[in-house]
Amino acid sequence: MIARALRHPSFLIGAVLSLLICTVALASLFWTPEDPTKMRILMRLKGPSAEFWLGTDQFGRDVASILMVGARNALLTGLVAVAIGLGFGLMLGVMAAQMKGRWIDDAIMRALDFVFAFPAVLSAILILTFLGPGLVNAVIAIGIFNIPVFARVARGATLQVLARDFIRAAQLARVPKLVILRRHVLPNIAGLMIVQASTQFALAILAEAGLSYLGLGTQPPNPSWGRMLNDAQTFLAMSPRLALLPGLAIALSVLAFNLLGDGLRDILDPRLEER
Amino acid sequence: MKPFLQVDNLARHYSLPARDFWGRRERFVALEGASFEVPEGQILGVVGESGSGKSTLARLLVGLEPPDVGSITLGEQHVRAGEAHSGPLRDVQMVFQDPFGSLDPRMRILDSIAEPLDHAGLSLSPDERLSRVVGMLERVGLGSGALRRFPHQFSGGQRQRIAIARALITRPRLLVADEPVSALDVSIAAQILNLLLDIRAEFGLTMVFISHDLGVIRYMADRVIVMQGGKIVEAGDTEVLFASPRHAYTERLLSAMPRF
Prior knowledge:
The complex is a heterodimer. Chain A is mainly alpha-helical. Chain A contains eleven helices and no strands. Chain A has a single domain (about 5-20, about 55-275), classed as Orthogonal Bundle (MetI-like fold), CATH 1.10.3720. Chain A has helices at about 1-5, 10-30, 65-100, 105-115, 120-130, 135-160, 165-170, 175-215, 225-235, 240-270, 270-275. The longest helix of chain A is centred in the C-terminal third of the chain and has 37 residues, at about 175-215. The two termini of chain A are about 15 Å apart. Chain B has eight helices and ten strands. The chains are: A mainly alpha, B alpha/beta. The interface between A and B is medium-sized, with 21 and 28 residues.
């Protein structure tokens, strides 16, 4: 499997890029070139230099440092939103599959369809008007809209596994239901869930950037790629660099995790393994 | 002599999905009025085309599904329609048709074969567990090199041997084999059939052997029941039934059988 991973170009590119972003985010915990919140009125809107690698913004803050800390926010958003979606979605999806044909399956899936029917960002805005803006609430809102996605994938995959004869064999061996789920179902659907997780991770980063752009996500002075974009709008003609850089960061991380997901899909495909 | 397995008037219906929200759910009769008995140590062949109720019968016999009507008596155990379904029966195991679907692709052979042991309430030591699995693997013609491997590293015939080892590890008294060789090449199939016959002799196993292949049934079975549309249309000793079929359907089946 490792050999196949190393020969897979989009997995490799995705893995290297995601690793790079993770490293930058981790590094920002200990070190940034400058204090990302420190303003220098005399140094406003300066271009890249030896002192400020990627220049400064309208308050004279170091753009490179803000971007680094922003990566931390983006990754944390993805991680928590995916954890919420995966945790609840997996549980509900597997439960629905297990109860297929009974009312509880229909109840779970129709309730999730209801959530799914609203555009994610729109409903996040709705939730945030109740909970109030802020990174934590934004992450929760994004996480909630990941639940139906994971639940659907989990339900479909679980149904496929449950239909196979090794489940009958386990039942004949008197393996308890929960043990069948843990030992047979989960390992066989894990690949699909991991692939879905990396796709949702990318979407969560995008959603957080979108919400922060609208002023509903990360609040100042905490750095966020989405808010950097919003701030840069005013100075678009004067210094397009300020919009380009966070835009590039967002695009690159979304691309990285999508490529990673695509690669994982191919690598973890059990059909390839059977041969 | 009292038969080891006795089946009385067994029936199973499935309700089909309703055509629309207000539509009535129609019932599909998968098995109806099935009665037969099998003496200990004998092989009962069940033959019929697809959809004749063979596999439904298999699932009822092993206790994966409860019957809607009728009863099953297996040694000291009784299963009656209407009583609470207690799950799979003791002393019964099953070999499935598709050796690619009957082994968990993510589980090592050792754990797949040991699974029935692990849940039989024996509390074996790891060494004891391992030696039992190795013994059974050798009995079905595979070496202990298979233990740490995964199913995809084996051929169809080898997988079916592994599935047989798993079925026999708890020393069941009844083995239900649902088309165990129909997914295999002819030469491999013959090896598996001989393995099953050897094991029957060695373990004194009673067997219900399901197949659509009359040649295979004739080779394996002491007695045969012929099924069509969920009903048993004819039953008899294998040689008698093959020599002088009484039911028109059996005759049709026999005349369609290729001769070598």
